[in-house]
Design brief:
This protein is mainly α. It has a domain of 117 residues: Tetratricopeptide repeat domain (Serine Threonine Protein Phosphatase 5, Tetratricopeptide repeat, Alpha Horseshoe). It is elongated and about 80 Å long.
Length: 292
């Protein structure tokens, strides 16, 4: 590992010298462009050595140096690739810097009209905010941008995956209106696809729970609406659970609510999101007069 770091530093020094000789009057006169290309290759090799040595910041900086040269040489696609490589290195030790260089790559891809690739890297940024920096609002923002780009390219399946992430975190952030709107939208588009049709019940289920967090009457009306839109929903376990929860809320019966959730969980294990939302609803039974 130390040997790889030493090789990286040697290549970096050589790249710096090569780049310096490429600038100025004599550099431009005698093959300046070729010297810059040579320097770029050396920076890239240095970055790979630093990666092998797990010197992630040094690797990221070397890839950025390579990208800057590629931009000067008008090799935009290569520059964007180098910024992505830099971002992948930085995010291991400096997530904020990782976001910064990935945004540079995205700017280049957008300028080139490569919106699908731009969307992919917005997802990478969303995941950094999601996992490394734990900033759900920023994560949601980037998932939304990715969804917009995918929609523009008619990649609706990819757009829906991003939107479901937005809905999940919007509900966690108590923006139930946004979450409900997305779950309903994705449910409707799923109904139009024979392969995705039966996943619609899960999205209607989550939309109804989000309604329930705000107002029980709206939740009742929503369940009735979903029944008409998607008859298969009526026969589902999720639908039966919703009816039991609505009854328990109307009766202000915490025990009935708990028992209904427990019965459902014994067959279909609740994930963390469902557990969080259902606990919020349960807590509101004796607190919120609007649920009486």
């Amino acid at each position: 590992m130390a040997e790889n770091e030493a090789k990286g530093k040697a290549l970096l020094d050589e790249a710096d010298r090569k780049l310096k000789s490429a600038t100025g009057f004599f550099g431009n006169l005698f093959g300046g462009s070729q010297k810059q290309e040579d320097a770029c290759e050396l920076y890239s090799r240095a970055a790979n050595m630093f990666k092998m040595a797990k010197k992630w910041n040094d690797a990221g900086k070397a890839f950025c140096s390579c990208a800057e040269i590629q931009l000067r040489l008008e090799s935009r696609h290569e520059a964007a690739t180098s910024y992505v490589n830099a971002g992948n290195c930085f995010k291991k030790t400096d997530p904020q810097e990782g976001v910064k260089v990935l945004l540079r790559a995205i700017e280049i891809y957008i300028d080139m009209g490569r919106f699908t690739i731009a969307a992919k890297h917005h997802i990478s940024i969303a995941e950094i905010y999601e996992n490394e920096m734990v900033d759900l609002e920023k994560s949601v923002e980037n998932y939304e941008r990715a969804a917009d780009y995918y929609k523009g390219e008619e990649s609706n399946s990819s757009a829906n995956k991003c939107l479901l992430k937005v809905a999940m975190y919007a509900a966690q952030l108590e923006d139930y209106a946004k979450a409900t709107e997305i779950y309903e939208e994705v449910a409707k588009t799923s109904m139009e696809n024979p392969l995705l049709k039966y996943s619609a019940k899960d999205y209607f289920f989550k939309a109804a729970l989000c309604h329930m967090c705000v107002d029980v009457l709206n939740a009742q009306l929503a369940v009735e609406k979903y029944d008409k839109m998607f008859p298969a929903f009526t026969d589902s376990r999720e639908h039966k659970l919703l009816l039991k929860l609505l009854d328990a809320i109307e009766d202000q019966n915490v025990d009935s609510y708990t028992e209904a959730v427990k019965d459902y969980d014994s067959i279909s294990r609740l994930d963390q999101w469902l557990t969080t939302i259902m606990l919020r609803i349960k807590k509101s039974i004796n607190e919120d007069p609007d649920l009486r």
